[in-house]
């Protein structure tokens, strides 16, 4: 179970994982050793899943965000396993969710342009039988954050 001190550590790390133990300790009024032990426990417990660098998509030529909804008539575990494997092999797919409601799956793509979307779309529909695919192109990012509200 995580306590308020763990939550404070997580809030700081989610905003800047490069903070030194000394900087974290100073901000949290704890010893560096205590902070280190807590971070190690959070990692061991899987609360901290991994440490990553956040890359600005536009700076690497990925100017287009596309949300793709997928409907299928096949809800078998075999279909999902095949579709899941296909999506895992596509680096353009940033997020992939199975949904309740009218739409079966939601996919978030980060791609260069519409021609790039067409390429990914063709790979997607070739992977498994799909009843319907609908794409929505993001016009503007209003909010995009990675920090969880802990």
Notes on the protein architecture:
The structure is a single chain. This protein has helices at residues 4-15, 21-28, 32-44, 77-88, 114-127; strands at residues 64-71, 93-98, 105-111, 132-137. The longest helix is centred in the last third of the chain and has 14 residues, at 114-127. Strand 2 and strand 3 (105-111) form a beta hairpin. Helix 2 crosses helix 3. The chain is α+β, with helices and mostly antiparallel strands. The protein is built from five helices and four strands, in the order αααβαββαβ. A four-stranded antiparallel β-sheet has the order 2-3-1-4, covered by helices on one side. The two termini are 13 Å apart. The protein folds into two domains: 4-44, Winged helix-like DNA-binding domain superfamily/Winged helix DNA-binding domain (Arc Repressor Mutant, subunit A); 57-137, Lrp/AsnC effector binding domain/regulation of amino acid metabolism (RAM) domain (Alpha-Beta Plaits, 2-Layer Sandwich).
What is the fourth-level CATH superfamily of the largest domain? Lrp/AsnC effector binding domain/regulation of amino acid metabolism (RAM) domain
Level-2 CATH architecture of the largest domain: 2-Layer Sandwich
The CATH topology name of the largest domain reads Alpha-Beta Plaits
**Sequence stretches where pLDDT stays below 50 over 5 or more residues:** none
Topology as H/E string? HHHEHEEHE
């Amino acid at each position: 179970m995580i306590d308020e001190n763990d939550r404070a550590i997580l809030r700081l790390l989610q905003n800047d994982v490069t903070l030194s133990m000394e900087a974290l300790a100073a901000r949290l009024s704890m010893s560096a050793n205590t902070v280190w032990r807590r971070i190690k426990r959070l990692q061991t417990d899987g609360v901290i899943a991994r440490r990553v660098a956040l890359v600005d998509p536009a700076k690497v030529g990925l100017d287009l965000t596309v949300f793709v909804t997928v409907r299928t008539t096949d809800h078998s575990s075999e279909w999902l396993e095949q579709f899941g494997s296909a999506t895992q092999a596509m680096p353009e797919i940033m997020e992939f969710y199975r949904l309740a409601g009218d739409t079966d799956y939601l996919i978030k793509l980060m791609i260069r342009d519409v021609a790039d979307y067409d390429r990914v779309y063709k790979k997607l529909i070739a992977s498994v039988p799909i009843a319907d695919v609908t794409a929505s192109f993001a016009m503007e990012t209003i909010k995009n954050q990675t920090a969880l509200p802990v």
